[in-house]
Amino acid sequence: MKSSDNKKVILEIQDLKKYFLNNGKVNKAVDGVSFKLHEGEIVGLIGESGSGKTTVGRSILRLYDDYNGFVILDDQIISGESISKKREKFLRKRVQMIFQDPHASLNGQKTVYSILKEPLVVNNIIKQKTGDLFSDWKKVTENFPFTFLLYAKKLKINNLKAINEPSSKFFPKWSDRLIDFKFDWDNLSTDENFVSYFNYLEEKQTMESAIINEMYTNTDHLMAFYYEKQAQYRNNDVTFDELDYLNAAKELEVAKKLCKYSQKQYDALQKLGELEKELQELKSNQNDYLLTNKNAFNNFLSEYKNEIKICRYARLNTYDLDFYFFNYKKELTNKIRFDFVKKYKSKLSYLSIDQIRYFIAELNKYTNRFYIEFLEPLAITKEFKSIAKSIVESHYNFDACEYLKSNHANELEFKSSIKNVEESIQVQKEIIHSKSEKPAYGKKELEAAEKKLLDAEKVFKAENDKYNKNIQKQIKQLDKEILTESLLYKNLKTQQGINDLKFNEINEAFFAKLNADLKQAKKQKDHAKVHDINKTIKIYKQKVANKLSTLKSFEVEVKHLFKDVRTIYLLLGIKQFENPLFNVYNRLFAKQMITKLITRSMIYKSLEDVGLLKQFAYRYPHEFSGGQRQRIVIARALITEPKVIVADEPIASLDISIQAQVVNLLKDLCEKKNIGMIFIAHDLSMIEYIADNVQIMHLGKIVESGDTATVYKRPLHPYTRNLFKAIPKISNANEKFENISFELDYLKEQQYPDIPSNYFVENDHYVYGTDKQVKEWVKPFRLGAPKNTDIIDLKEEDKK
């Protein structure tokens, strides 16, 4: 298992709770789940059905949005009853889910291409990529016209060679065989005679698959070359003459503006744009901050409200008087906190999330002390309720002054920041509209800037001409090669047509022989032989039809590839370079075509990442096996380049032989792409193999957690030990399957007044239980004294 100490925490879950309402009763499905997920780390969630694993996964993705606790994704809080659209988009792009059933993510009426395209469109990924590309597309293509043309011609040669080289060996070889072909019905079986000419199609398909892959690779290289040159242009990694020309053009633009404005006004114009962006960002951050604050308080209010209902239900459904009043006291303390937080919610609307957590932690500590001092000692009498309420009214007095001051300071900071920027904007506007300011430049300075640009342009063109002369020689040589390869391609196409006709003649002769045998068998009334020949004819015809259909798709695919190449020519600006009449309408058309090209390349890459062929993009989900469908689901999850993947039993519905392939694929992808993954599963041996860290859940709580190797080596919690007993092993394969009883005796020891907590027992190993229980569980392993992590003061922990 790899260490995650130096890795960034990409997802943090703090005290996650999920309540479900059923016939007036509140059920706590998830209770206080907390853990961290690092980049490239796999965290396994184990437990029986109903333990709350899937509920945790769905809560992270906000498939349930009414949960309590905090979910922090890449330093952004994504939990809360309602989050901003900005955070919603942030979440959808960075977190993806893989479900147990592939059909949950696949629309059977759409092709794989359409299925994979959907997340790209929904998350505006295509829009962002094309927007970035076209921000300087014209300048990049104008800066490297001959370089792009040269590279494009090389690609054309490579594509022709990819077809011609294997075809030059294949078609002449089979031409000789097919011309002299004769069936040997005396010495060879029917199947051997069929294979002797059918191999033409088999070998042809193998060759054409290799050609397609080579052409796809060439196309990818051409696109990569454009991005390489784009980066070069953006980094000003150009020749001295190009750089001088670009700088002179910028200086002329500045000079034109300085003919209208003074230097002071020009500087004010530049600063105004920056300040307006800053103001917009400040106001957006303020709104987001206030919404997050509101969600945090609502989160605690909802939790207290649900706890009140749980306590009320517990006390109203018991005959034990002590238990009744214990739950009444708990209900009362939750009611106190609910009322107090509700009262101060609007007064503390500018507290940060950490400050709110401190506030709630202090409130809870104060309430617990209040409970121990005033409510716990109360004797059970008829007037108990009225006495308890009067004690609350007279003695409960939590001091929130410190937090009111912090809130006021935060509010002032926000408002003063906005006010300062607004004032600066007003100052810049006054400077811009000032009538006392005079233009900094006159006709003389403008002419000097124009002359500088013309001089730079002359040097640029002179250097460009020198370069172009050398390039033109290379282009002429490449044109000769293209002509030679094109003629060879046409000759091979002709030869292919002749071979295909000869194959059809031989194929017809083969089936004519079988039909003659069939006719003879019918005359002899040999029903068994008639049945066998009919079956043979049907099988062979199906084989030929399937192979011809596959080969026909090759021609279609080659057409698509050549279409992609033409689109790449648009991307490289070659059409624009060759055609001086290339106008704005053609550019709009080019943008549309290039957008489709980028979409296709992203979809093809995502399929390759999961071990599928690019050609699969145009098939439908029902045409794939279960393992392939799950790979498509993984490709769909990966295409948005997420930071986190929640895999909810992704291999449970797969054949055992396919499970290992999918698990290894997920493990490799997480490592290569630095993705954090929450792997939910029942299969304990699979979790042991794939997970770096394990969280064992029972009845909504994490009962044991830590490094996978450590937990599997020294399982402490009774529930964990029972789970591990259920793992099938080779060593006991000959023994009768033991029925493991998941007894809940440990829960009896965790009832009032014994309250369980989380304990640190060894490095990266935690267990949930009472103090007495945990000490008993660690004895056989001779571990040190366990430490209660729940009693660590929040503020002190933060300081550390």
From TrEMBL:
- A GO BP entry: peptide transport
Domain of life, per UniProt, equals Bacteria
Keyword ATP-binding (UniProt):
yes
Concerning SUPFAM superfamilies, the annotation shows:
P-loop containing nucleoside triphosphate hydrolases
Coiled coil residues, start to end: 265-292
**Locate the ABC transporter domain: which residues?**
11-724
The entry's keywords: ATP-binding, Coiled coil, Nucleotide-binding, Transport
Q: Which Pfam families match?
A: ABC_tran, oligo_HPY
Query: Is Repeat tagged as a keyword?
Result: no
What's an example of a GO molecular-function annotation for this chain? ATP hydrolysis activity
Q: Which family does it belong to?
A: Belongs to the ABC transporter superfamily.
Annotated protein name in UniProt = Oligopeptide ABC transporter, ATP bindingprotein (OppF)
